[in-house]
């Protein structure tokens, strides 16, 4: 038989690990010297230790190993299959996290877009014809804590339609429950630049825009202001490629025209 230090050297385990295995009842010594307190391990203990370490290398936790070490082989193999599936799910999640981190590092914008589901929203709006995004600054100044909507599926190359929430008067507009990509705009980032970066982010992630972008201008009692952009996306289909994208009257160089209420609802 071997003392604990000898067994540790033979197998590559640590004495601390062997004591822990003893404490949880996973690997008890073959004998304990009542006078010195030394732990002694025999061949059966050596074989059991090697099985414990082998199952650990397969990804099983000590709790799982305690349940399986004396179980039939078919049960052990099923547990290993489940462990492999869980490991692969975690690898996929880590790959996705790494992709998001690399995407952030590859762009100069400090945006951190998030996908979320939002509920139905009812607004009273005044519709606008806009020839350039810069015109929206005056609209926002007139309604500093309001909501602005823009009907765009890409960066504008001419006139486009917009609407501002008047807070009580104007045409009724209902935005249905939808999946959106949301970005909180840092104070140092201009809204136009943020919108450009957000559209570029959507394009890189092959997400199709499914309605008006909502731009909320929010403030609190302390006078702090923040702008939140929400772009609804179609989760059932990817964005069209530039060569295959259908012509969009809201983002073409043609002169902007007034849309009908029915068309506006279709875009929303």
UniProtKB/TrEMBL annotation:
Any matching Pfam family: MerR_1
Claim: DNA-binding is one of the keywords in the record: yes
Biased composition (Low complexity): 235-244
UniProt keywords, alphabetically: DNA-binding, Repressor, Transcription, Transcription regulation
Entry annotated with the keyword Nucleotide-binding: no
Domain HTH merR-type as annotated: residue spans: 1-71
One MF term in the entry's GO annotations: DNA binding
Protein name: MerR family transcriptional regulator
Lineage of origin: Bacteria, Bacillati, Actinomycetota, Actinomycetes, Micromonosporales
């Amino acid at each position: 038989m071997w003392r604990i230090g000898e067994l540790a050297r033979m197998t590559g385990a640590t004495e601390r690990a062997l004591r822990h295995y003893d404490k949880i009842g996973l690997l008890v010594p073959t004998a304990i010297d009542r006078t010195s307190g030394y732990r002694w391990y025999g061949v059966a203990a050596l074989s059991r230790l090697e099985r414990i370490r082998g199952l650990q290398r397969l990804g099983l936790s000590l709790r799982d190993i305690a349940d399986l070490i004396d179980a039939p082989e078919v049960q052990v193999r099923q547990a290993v299959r489940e462990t492999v599936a869980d490991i692969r799910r975690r690898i996929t999640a880590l790959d996705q996290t790494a992709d998001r981190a690399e995407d952030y590092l590859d762009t100069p914008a400090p945006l951190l877009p998030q996908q979320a589901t939002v509920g139905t929203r009812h607004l009273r709006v005044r519709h606008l014809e806009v020839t350039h995004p810069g015109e929206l600054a005056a609209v926002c100044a007139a309604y500093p804590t309001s909501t602005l909507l823009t009907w765009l599926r890409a960066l504008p190359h001419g006139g486009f339609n917009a609407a501002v929430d008047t807070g009580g008067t104007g045409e009724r507009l209902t935005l249905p429950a939808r999946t959106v990509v949301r970005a909180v705009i840092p104070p140092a980032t201009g809204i136009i630049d943020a919108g450009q970066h957000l559209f570029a982010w959507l394009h890189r992630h092959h997400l199709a825009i499914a309605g008006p972008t909502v731009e909320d201008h929010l403030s609190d009692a302390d006078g702090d202001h923040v702008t939140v952009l929400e772009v609804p996306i179609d989760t059932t289909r990817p964005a069209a490629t530039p060569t295959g994208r259908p012509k969009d009257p809201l983002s073409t160089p043609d002169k902007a025209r007034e849309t009908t209420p029915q068309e506006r609802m279709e875009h929303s």
